[in-house]
Amino acid sequence: MTKLGHSQAIRFLIFFALILATISCSQKQQPPAAAPQSTPTQPLTIAQIARTYGLDQFGQVEAIRYTWNAQFPGVNVARSWVWEPKKDQVSYEGKDKDGKVVKVTYLRSQLNSQPVNVKDEVDPAFVNDNYWLLFPFHAYWDKSATVTDQGMKPLPQGNGSAQLVSVKYPSDGGYTPGDTWDLYVGKDQRVEQFVYHRGGPKKPSTVIATWEGYKKAGLLLISTDHNGTADGNTVRIFMTDVAVKLTGSDNWINAQ
Prior knowledge:
256 residues; outer membrane lipoprotein receptor (LolB), chain A; 13-stranded antiparallel sheet; single chain; 3 helices; alpha+beta
């Protein structure tokens, strides 16, 4: 099964830098046999969190379909994807910076043979959007990430508290080294909110957002709605038309 590697993947949320620029002119840990309910005194691993979202069943997924949407004041972006993880084949439909419709299908293993727009625009956007869709999996798959449980902390938005699990990348390698994602995880081991801290000088420096709109797409649990701020600017990232196709079936299972 193919995963998106940290060294070749544009870091999660980097597309924000492009959007904000527009506005301004945009360890792996071995899990126990069963994942019990976490408590403030019991460390929570990224494997436990990823399993909540369907990690153990991911091998049965033949294809994932979704549209990634971003809404800022004055900005409305939609990009549609089909990812076949076993082949690491991507199909994309969206618009370029000039508003022209772009449709392309490519194998990520053959990215170097693709046109410049696919290498420099489409594939980075795919990685960004896929991290939004499946971040608990990527945090588990990315071997360079250091994951620490920092115990119960107040939620960054609103009232209440949750278990803070921090995912930090090293200061070298990747597109934006030193990035940190603070996941605020509830007792059901679902992420409730997160805070993204960029490791470099590009903007946004900090993104705070909810994880809500939970739906099941076949064997996977997906948060389809994220509301919050990017460096103080209101932002909403949400997924529509989410569906999966399982091995041995030609039918799409819609998220519900």
